[in-house]
Amino acid sequence: MIIRATFALFLCLFVSIITTPTPYAATINRLVIFGDSLSDQGRLYEFFHDKVPVSPPYWYGRFSNGPVWTDIISERYPIKNLSEGGATLVNYATYSLAIKYLYITYLGEEITHFLKQDAFRPSDLVIIWMGGNDYIAYDWLSQNDMERAVRELYLQVLRLRLKGAQQVLVINLPDMSQTPLAKQEKDAGRLHLLTISHNQLLEETLLSILPSDFIQIYDAYSVFEDILTFPDEYGLHDATTPCYTGRMWRNRTIPSEATAPVRESILSANRKVSNVAAPIHHPRNSPQCEGLLFFDNLHPTTFAHGIIADKLDQFIQENY
After folding, report:
1. DSSP for 234-272?
2. How far is CA 174 from CA 8, 99, 253, 276, 282, in A?
3. Block mean pLDDT (10 aa), the chain, length 320
4. pTM above 0.90, yes or no
5. Angle CA(175)–CA(180)–CA(183) in degrees, nearest 5?
6. How far apart are CA 131 and CA 149, in angstroms?
């Protein structure tokens, strides 16, 4: 009842914002991205002074064996990427005294960092892909936890609208139960139901309240479900086994090709991969982790990131 009352209150407070039409940006000239390790281009690596994730085997501070989808799509669009590994939807430092929450960022903080140095343009497409860490990494798994996470995402989307964003694309969660981490160490059944509940509430909250010319949801759940069901059609032969089984913060069991020394310092957040003299092959042809969906027990290989980038680019081209 408290959650419903809170939502009703915000509906009253923001009704004028929600219902006021905004100009349609016919051309997307920049992607502004808020996210976690799936989208991070090295921000956490820099924060921890090149220690996390250990690189190699992780590629230039990415949570993969090569460029991630934000690197790949930056070859097609200018991007501003505030994504950082470990990021959550909720600021859990306000709910827990655990020291780990002092070292991770959250969606609201990423938006604040952006607004301190930049402003939204009419031709921006704001992309938010976040939420998995709230559940699978930090174990906030109750119904109340899920509703709080979705509520925080909704409030931050309203904040984006207040600050001038005109096009927002929210990416929902892939099935967390299908990750090697969930199958090995977590309650996979519970994570499956939580993923479905999160995505349903996300759709009900955003699409039923906000105008369609402002907000859309990209269905990553269905995309990954198709990849998991028909991996061969995507050039994959194994959608369950991780390529790398070592730790993110200690150099163990390094794939042989990743042992070449890293010859450059960390990339800036928006530097294009095409300009990098990388110590490994191009992601589409790399024999390292060839045919595998997962690089480690949670994150996709760079080949899989290429699939994500292609599909998301197609969605953008068809809908904006």
Report:
1. GT-SBSS--S--S-SSS--S--GGGGSPP-SPPPPTT--
2. 29, 28, 28, 30, 26
3. 47 44 62 98 92 91 95 96 98 96 96 98 98 97 98 98 98 98 96 98 95 97 97 95 87 39 31 34 60 96 96 96
4. no
5. 80
6. 7
What tokens does 31 get?
């992607």
State the Cα torsion 234-84-171-137 to the nearest 10°.
80
Is there a contact between 294 and 224 (Cβ–Cβ < 8 Å)?
no
> What is the C-alpha to C-alpha distance for residues 79 and 70, in angstroms, rounded to an integer?
8
* Cα(135)–Cα(150) distance, integer angstroms: 12
Q: Given strand 124-129, what is the order of strands in its sheet?
A: 79-81, 30-35, 124-129, 168-171, 215-218
Instruction: Round to whole Å and give the CA distance between 42 and 63.
Output: 9
- pLDDT, tens digit (0-9, with 9 covering 90-100), for 107-129: 999 999 999 999 999 999 999 99
Q: Which domains does the chain have, with CATH numbers?
A: 28-319 (3.40.50.1110)
Which residues on adjacent β-strands are paired with residue 215?
Answer: 168
27, 57 contact by CB (below 8 A): no
What does the alpha-carbon distance between residue 193 and residue 32 come to, in Å, rounded to a whole number?
Answer: 30
267: closest CA among 41, 14, 101, 17? 41
Residues 73, 83: Cα–Cα separation, whole Å: 14
Tokens of 204: 């009900």
Pair type for strands 30-35 and 215-218: unpaired
Residue 137's nearest CA partner among 145, 125, 126, 128 is 145
Q: For tokens 């990423």, name the residue.
A: 110
Distance CA 261, CA 245 (A): 20
**Distance, CA of 12 to CA of 7 (rounded, Å):** 9
Other CB atoms closer than 10 Å to residue 229's CB: what's the count? 9
